[in-house]
Amino acid sequence: MARRRSSGITSLGFSQDQGCFTCCLTSGLRVYNVDPLVEKAHYSKEELGEVSLCEMVFRTNWLLVVRARRPCCLLLLDDQRRAFSAEVTFKSPIRALRARKDKVAVVLSCSVQVLSLPSLQRVALLRTPPAAPAARPLCALASDPNALQILAAPAHRKGSLQLLDVSRAVKGAQSSSPAVVSCHQSEVACLSVAASGCRLATASRRGTIIRLWDTTTKQMLHELRRGSDYADVYCISFNGDASLVCCVSDKGTLHVWATRGSARHLCCAAAPPHRALCALSDDRTAVVICEDGTFHKFTFSAEGNCHRNDFEYFLQVGDDDEFLH
């Protein structure tokens, strides 16, 4: 989620374990811990300038950064040294970043390039349909280091996605062709891949249902009803073992489903209608971070009870000099 906003926020992003999030600003960069909500790193505009994108590499000292004045350049920031250790420049602006411990997927206007970490050498290339400048960048990368390394991105056929196992990639090329999955009749608007790479979740521009897919068989497992009115689904997120999935949309609601066996809707809670990201920090807690700088924590039960038990303006949370270890 990246764009300039009145709050000064240009983009937000959760870490791979969903226990932290980054906040890119016209005035620099901040990194927060989710539970408890604590600011863990703070870079001023004088240090970094305006930051448009940032992707954590789990809870390591590496931060992948794109600055507004150099939108085609990816920088690897060592937070321990507070210095850049590597960079790579592309021919078009970087639209999104998705990382795992050993690789980062860089979303460009007509491709997704996969780079090794920390060398930033290209190991795979996935061609994608040309994207309009204002279109939401779509890409997901499985993050579990011991499981399938599935990369999902738009295919050239409307409503379809291509899946590539980047563990099979060799330097500068790919050793196998991506599989194509027909997910929706209309264009895909939002997607997520489980950490293990075994599950894929998708929503179309209609936004009325979330579909769950098995990435190995390419078969649909479940249709999860979000609502009957069309909606812009901002974010879909799995928990660690893909037994739960949640989403937020412009309808101002957070939905959570259980996905094992016979999938069922667990809860629906009121969330701000602002553009937002959601995450499942554990099996009974969902977190929503919003473009207006607000933080919302919800707890829910298997019986369907749900309530918001924390609310903060995270931009007002104080500094903490100790970074994540």
From TrEMBL:
Q: Keywords for this entry?
A: Autophagy, Repeat, WD repeat
Q: Which GO terms describe its cellular component?
A: cytoplasm
A Pfam family of this chain: PROPPIN
Q: Name one GO biological process term.
A: autophagy
TM helices/strands, residue ranges? none
Record-linked SMART domains? WD40
Q: Which family does it belong to?
A: Belongs to the WD repeat PROPPIN family.
Name under which the protein is recorded: WD repeat domain phosphoinositide-interacting protein 4-like
State the species of origin: Papilio xuthus
